[in-house]
Amino acid sequence: PLTRSVRFCSLAVSSSGISVGSVSAVSLAKTEHDSRVLLGMSELELQQLALNFGQDKYRGKQLHHILYKMKVRELQDFSQLPLMFRNELQEAGWYVGRSPIYKAVTSADGTVKLLIKLEDNRLVETVGIPNEDEKGSVRLTACVSSQVGCALRCSFCATGKGGFSRNLKSHEIVEQVSPCLCILDFGMTLFVFLLHYCVLAVEETFKRRVTNVVFMGMGEPMLNLKEVLEAHRCLNQDIQIGQRMITISTVGVPNTMRKLASHKLQSTLAVSLHAPNQKLRETIVPSAKSYPLDAIMNDCRHYFMETNRRVSFEYTLL
């Protein structure tokens, strides 16, 4: 089954210049988080940002709460913060950075595919998958993308046919979860609310939030591991989705599974196998030539030994 999911937030990347009337505009606008997108930053980073602007440390905590609990989309709507602080942040180029939903399609089983328009006008897909178990509890899984396009060109995958454009930044991965929070269930009908400010109301009113996140959308997560790990950190620590509710899928990229294992995450590793032998696998997954099945199995065993987490194997029914 598509494993566990998460509840997500959104972001974007800022562009050009900084203009703050005081001496060190650059130092004001910079923290260890080198872009000027707020979403995706940790509480400690936001506290440091507040200090850099001459604010008390607790303002960073307020920022964190507004970003991840209230999910406000515009900096000037952070009404709990002093207007002067908001203006200084804005003048220095800081902004929330949530991307709009370009298109939404709902299937008969309630699954919703969302097309999100990024700041550079590229489009990326995320999918919300609702599921009710035998006990009646509802799970909502967000299937997120890690790249715009994909270079691996697996024969069964439409994404690879369009080629690779670029890696997603961690905040662009995180932001894919927020739209999934807008999936509501009224009896037998699913509606997707595309209003910018509806997320918090949905969560409070319907007690429905993303419970699981799977990195199984567009792109190969292991080819963007740095940003995937940062998105994982944000989902777990800032949005408070349990590590065991997050699954990272891979078709297999040499040396990356061991690198992932070294972080000792408690998340599920899912390997897209698709064939029981090397020869057949190479016809389905061209990149398999550089990463034979024996090597993949050894790295799967290593992942299990390092994390004590079982590895899932995925097949496409061709």
UniProtKB/TrEMBL annotation:
Radical SAM core domain location, by residue?
Answer: 136-318
Task: Tell me a GO biological process for this protein.
Answer: tRNA methylation
Any one GO MF term held by the record is: metal ion binding
Q: A cellular component term (GO) from this record?
A: cytoplasm
Give the superkingdom in one word: Eukaryota
- Keywords, alphabetical: 4Fe-4S, Cytoplasm, Iron, Iron-sulfur, Metal-binding, Methyltransferase, S-adenosyl-L-methionine, Transferase
Give the protein's cofactors: [4Fe-4S] cluster
**Cellular compartments annotated:** Cytoplasm
SUPFAM superfamilies (UniProt xref): Radical SAM enzymes
What name appears for this protein in its UniProt entry? Radical SAM core domain-containing protein
Q: Which organism is it from?
A: Genlisea aurea
Q: Mind giving the lineage of the organism this protein is from? A: Eukaryota, Viridiplantae, Streptophyta, Embryophyta, Tracheophyta
